[in-house]
Backbone:
């Protein structure tokens, strides 16, 4: 068992998971009419290290990076037909910005496809 699994918080999380494991998400929303609003993204919301700057329901999500990237960076998700398209944009600032972007390209080849697969897998479980 790793160190984190010994913490009280982890044990509480395990108990909570056991309590709700048979609960369907639909039931949670039926019991709590305000749940949707609390868990819905809005323009201006922070999502990890990203700020939501454009949101069109079931069509587009545009996130702006709020981390050090030596320039400006955006991550866009959009639906085209039945396809989820993910695009990363970066406008580098100076030579360091360009070096940063090109040094990250090999990692993006692994990160982005895995991210899309994870989103699709989770969406399938929620349906």
Residues:
């Amino acid at each position: 068992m790793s160190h984190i699994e010994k913490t009280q918080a982890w044990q509480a999380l395990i108990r909570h998971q056991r309590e709700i494991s048979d609960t369907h998400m639909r039931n949670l929303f039926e019991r709590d009419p305000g749940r949707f609003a609390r868990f819905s993204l809005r323009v201006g919301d922070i999502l990890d290290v990203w700020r939501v700057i454009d949101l069109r329901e079931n069509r587009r999500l545009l996130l702006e990076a709020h981390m050090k990237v030596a320039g400006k960076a955006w991550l866009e998700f959009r639906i085209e037909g039945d396809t989820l398209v993910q695009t990363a944009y970066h406008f580098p600032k100076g030579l360091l910005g360009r070096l940063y972007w090109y040094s990250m390209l090999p990692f993006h080849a692994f990160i982005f496809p895995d991210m899309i697969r994870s989103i699709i897998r989770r969406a399938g479980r929620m349906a």
In short: Residues 1-40 form one domain. Residues 94-126 form the longest helix (33 residues).
